[in-house]
Amino acid sequence: MIRRDSLCAAASGILLAVALPNEFIPYGTPLIAPIALIPLFYALLHSRRRRDSVRIGVIFAVISTGLSNYWLANFGEFAIWTIGGPIIGYSLYNSLLFPVLQRILQGPARGERVFVAAAAWAGYEFLKSVGFLGYPWGLISYPAGVYLPLIQHVDVTGVWALSFLFAATNLLGAELLYHREGILCDRLNKRLLETPNYGKIPALSKELMLRSAGFSFLVFILMMAYGYRALTLTVPAQAELQLVMVQNNTDSWERGNEEPSLLVAQRLTRRGLRQLAPVTPDLIVWSETLLRRPYAIDREYYRHFPSNDPFVPFVAEAGVPLLTGGPHVELRGDEWLSYNSALLILPSGELEQNYGKRQLVPFAEHIPFWELSVVRNFFRDVVGIFGTWTPGPEITIFELPIQNRDEPLRFATPICFEDAFSGVARAMVREGAEVLINLTNNSWSQTNSAQTQHFVAAQFRAVEMRTTLIRSSNSGLSTIVDPHGRRVIELPMFEQDYYAGTVSIQQSPHPTIYTRWGDYLAWAFLFLVTLVLAVKEFQSRSSS
Questions:
Q1: Quick one: which of 400, 303, 301 has its CA closest to 342?
Q2: Structural domain contains residue 382
Q3: pLDDT tens, residue by residue, 148-207
Q4: Are residues 54 and 90 both part of a single domain?
Q5: CA pair distance 90, 78, nearest whole angstrom
Q6: Which range of residues forms the domain containing residue 326?
Q7: Do 483 and 434 form a contact (C-beta atoms < 8 A)?
């Protein structure tokens, strides 16, 4: 017989997947996010044993991760690891998180338990979004991205205040159900609703719930007021960039596909150049991994490849610096290091600057202890991974001379999913980047939802730093995002296309609070939760 709390956990897993960007609601919906977790928290209010909370958390992790990240099953020959890894990882995370939530909710019937639990949820979302295993997908705050007034405050708080608010509304909904259920049970004086655990955790009073709801509503009103005000303010333009951006929509993972991919990119680039003529663009941007060989040491190869339209002569013909993705290798001591890189190539064919991706995909692009033969042999023989990238040593701030401005344009290039990491984007802006240009390739996912989920995460970075974000993707979502999170231009997904025109490079003249202080709110939430748990433990030992 399936337990009721297991069904509640599964229901929340389904609702969260519906709230996030998916194939049916392309950018997700903020209407479901404030209620998606009510069944989950309701189940926790009824749980008593630690193993019950662990089971609830694991079921929720399996359902929500599997439904919202199903496209990871298209990740090449070792897809079982890419889809299985996050499911197992989140199951382990939740087996630690949910006993903490249970412990908080088992406290006295005071209104702050809602907000301490909401702080724990927001702190958890922060922890799972940073570090080597960081995967900032599926945050409860992301469905709000479609409603711009509601996300403008992230330039102050990051996304964590929104995660806190949505978690709090869900917790209040669960508390209300628990409270009403208790009243009904008391009136009937029997357990018609099969609530053997009711009464073991004291329910919040109506007055406390109203106060908590009032505080949550006040936070929402402040967010909206700030948002509408922010949208009326113009972020000043620092420069105008004449740009040709190409979306070639070819499978860069297909063996032997490098030549047709380059030919498509070069053909689309020529169309863009003709469209801009007589204006000469400042920059051509291609997507991630369009070059397959290390350009720095294989330039001679690219003088003759592709055979009927060689790359190096094409760059010279274009007469414009080209930013594209490809491997870069360096000899350090007696060891060759390989980087997944962004490469700025001059019309002369010289490699002007490069940036090596620093936030690598764990256990796909970078594997700890790869130098040990037992680790290396396992991933080669069992998983099918035969090599890894080296994390980039430092942030590169590219400098590009542009028209109608004396100083060069300074930009940084988050690669692949790096633009979903607030810490990565923040570090680049703090180093002096005036615009972020993301090079990515999501074509392997074969789904729109994977690409819109990536975009929605990246959208918040533009608002947090109040800076322009250019996303050049192999198959989408290729777009230009302004400092308020608006899509200025957008290329259709899974189509060969290009954009040729002027991009207004906007950035706040003063660093935002988030740019300066970073994830202070998330750390404050974690401190609060740790303090509350420490006090509970002290009181528990004192009473015993």
A1: 400
A2: no
A3: 999 999 999 999 999 999 999 999 999 998 877 765 555 555 444 444 444 467 778 888
A4: yes
A5: 19
A6: 237-357+392-507
A7: no
